[in-house]
């Protein structure tokens, strides 16, 4: 079970972090090897512990990958997030462009990808709403005409 550190923040072992995010321990270890996730604390015995923000980053990585974002672009998202947020996950108001170690070209590519994902999401949301309206009308009409038969 996750344990609080001395500051009261919940810390997760690799296995606990994986369980909370719904992935395998190996996935967490792979992302750690790629330096997409970094432990918040390493115990004297070498055990890696991750805080709540690591869980948020891991979930974001999983979502971005599920949306079709390549790993190198997902890495850029993590780099951008780390540069603009503190360890608790709060947006830093004092960040500057030089805090982000990505070229303008990488940032532009990332913005292009995000716009593409957003456009795709909007199209799918429209399609799902249209299908829901059709199904609602279909079943209301059937309920009015006669009971639905199996």
UniProtKB/TrEMBL annotation:
Protein name, as recorded: DNA-binding transcriptional MerR regulator
Listed Gene3D superfamilies: 1.10.1660.10
PROSITE patterns to which the protein is assigned, alphabetical: HTH_MERR_2
Keyword entries, A-Z: DNA-binding
Highest taxon, organism lineage: Bacteria
Keyword presence, rRNA-binding: no
PANTHER family tied to this protein: HTH MERR-TYPE DOMAIN-CONTAINING PROTEIN, REDOX-CYCLING DRUG-SENSING TRANSCRIPTIONAL ACTIVATOR SOXR
